[in-house]
Structure formats: structure tokens, C-alpha cells
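hiii so my PI (J.) wants the whole complex modelled not just the main chain, which honestly fair. so below is everything: two entries, each one labled with what it is. i double checked the lines twice but i was tired so who knows lol
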Amino acid sequence: MNRDEGKQILLLYRNPADAQDPQIAEALELAKADTELSRWFENHCAVQNALREKFRAIEIPVALKEQIVSEQISNMKAKARREKFVAAGAITMIVAVLMVFGISYYSDHSKGRPPAPTLANYESDMLYYARPGYGMDLATNDLAQIKDHFTQTAAPADYILPAPLAQAAATGCAVKDWNGAKVSMICFATGRPLPQGLPGDLWLFVVDRAAVTDAPDSATPQISKINNVTVATWTENGKMYLLGVQGDEAMLRKYL
Amino acid sequence: MAGPDFEKIVADYYAQLYQFAFSLAREEAEACDLTQQTFCIWAAKGHQLRDTSKVKTWLFTTLYREFLGARRRQNRFPQVELDSVTEALPVILPPDVNRLDSAQLLDALGRLDESHRVPVALFYLQDYSYNEIAEILEIPLGTVKSRLVRGLAKLHELLTDKIKS
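here's the output for the full assembly
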């Protein structure tokens, strides 16, 4: 190592810790033996110290530290707000999804679930069967045939027709299923002109009394009006009867 | 993180980081931004650092990376390429240095090629060991030394010109 090389290496020297570097250590040894290099090195150290002091005199902006800390606190608050917003959004989304599924589930199960076995539901459903265009299993005016049909289909067949009704003109019959119970439906015509598509205007429905929770206990017909149909309900020998007619109570009473 | 730990780390290192940032950017606003951003990154990722003795090095490395990223985006820093180490090193005397102010020193530093400017800034500002400078800049130790020698020689040359003028 010559003097110039020593100078270049000693450019890296700042303090005694740097002497641990083998190259610097070698250059320092050279400086001890070389007076000119030694003087240069002494001046170099003084210049280095002066330069270091100058560099470290770079002014720090006032309140930079406070600005950094407050900025971070502000960032954290903003982040917390974002997280709350996201959490609230997620909860809202979950609730909405649950509601949609809940409504859908309830709706599906409501559709599939049988109606409560109340008299009101029974009346409503039976009159729905008697809407215009309804079909009959058997079209006949023979009440014996009708009874046979019910017997064959395990529908209530041991019914007792009120005497006036037994004189009415039967047009046919059908068997309906209501809440798991068979319902015997007998259609009659009162003799009035029938609307098109309506095979009868007087209907008798017979079901086991146990199928309707609040079936009337009495054998005396109870009269009520449902839309334009007048109905009578009564119970006799374990069967509940529902007779409906398109007309008023007077018309209905002709068949009781 | 903005609790006592964060505040202590800011208090311990913000001044050194700012000076380093200023030596790189040479603009107060950008130096403040770099310092601020470095602590933001520390707040987000500092917990991943297992060795707490490396906090200072981690901060300087992060600041330098941020500077490089910003520089790549802006590419507006003038550079002076160094050809080779001057054959005869210029002689500067301590009284000459004392006639210069920090702004003139930083101006001379800023005229260095960036690959030399950054190790020189770490060399003067932080008394980092050569190994630590190599770690921060993510370059080999030998490269650090050669860049320092070239950078210091060029800096002395530029300072000599300033003193003469």
C-alpha cells in the first residue's frame, strides 16, 4: 500500500471503531510510519469532524414529531371508522340475507303447511272447491251411485241427508282431501239457470267431525253468509255437514 | 400503533430520519413526507420485526426504499456521474469547512450521483458502520466502501470548488 492508496482508504476513517477494518488498520499503520500521510490524516480527521457537525446541523422542522404522532392517531381513528363502517355494512348484509332467507323459508313453509283445522278454514276451502269450472269425480243424479263412490274411495258415506235435500236433483260428486281427512262433496242443482261452467249451485260437504277442531256441536244448522254463498253447518253422528247455496238464507232453508 | 411505544420510537429517530431524508430529497416538504411515511409504514408493519435492535436500520431502509420509489415515479433528481477517484485528493482545511454552511454542504452532496450520495449521507449523518450501510442499501460491503471512497473524494472536490469560489 502506497501513500495515495493509504489516503483513499483513510477517507473512510471516522473514529477508532473503524480501525477494526483490516484495510483501514493497515493504512493507519502506514500513517504512523509516514509523516506526510500522518499530517494529512490528522487534517482529514479534523475536516471530517467539521463536516459531520455541519451535516448534523440540518434543522429539523418545528413540531415534526408532534405532526407524525398526531397524523398516526388520525390515521388510526380513520381506520377504526372504516372498520366500524365495514362491520356495520357486514352486519346489515348478514341481517338482510337472513331476512331474505327467513322470509323465503317462512313463505315456502307457509305454502306447504296445511291450514289450521278450523271451521272458518274448512268453510273457505270447501267453497273454493265449488268455484265455477270445478270438476266432479262422478256426474250422476243417482244418490245411491254417489254413496257407492264414496264407499269405494273411503270417503264419508254414512251421512244422513236432510229430507228436503234428499229430494233435490243431484248432479254428481267428488272426494276432496282436507288436512288428511277425506271430504265427501255432493253437488245439486236448485233448478235455477246455472251459470256456464258451474255443474251445480247447491253443495253438501261431509267430513268426520274430528277433522275440524271447532265444528259445531249441535245438530241444529247454524246459518252464515260467506260472500254470495249462504252456508249451514251442523254435526250429527260424528259427521260435520256443510251445506252451501248460491242465494239467500231462505233458499238454503228449503233444503234443511 | 400510536401508543407509548410508537411515540418513543418517533422521539428517538425522527430527527435522524428527517436529516437523512433531507440529504436525499433536499426539500423540506418531501423530507417531511418521507419521514412521515416511514413511520406510517412502521405503524402498519413494525410488529413484524422480531429483532428490536434492528428498529433503526429498519426505519432507514424503509425510508430509503420510499425515496427510491418516489424517485422512480418522479425521476427529477439531477445526478453527476463520477468517472474515477481523483488521482490527487484535494486538500481541505477545517477553517475552510467552517466557512461553509449546511446548505452549501447539502448542495455539494446533492450534486453527487445518487449511488454515492446515499452512503455518504449515512456516513456523515449517522455514524453507521459499513456493514449497517450495506444492510440499509442492500448492497455488498465492498460496494459500500468503493462508493464511499468515490463519493467522499468527489464531495471534497466539490467543496474545494465552493471554497475557492
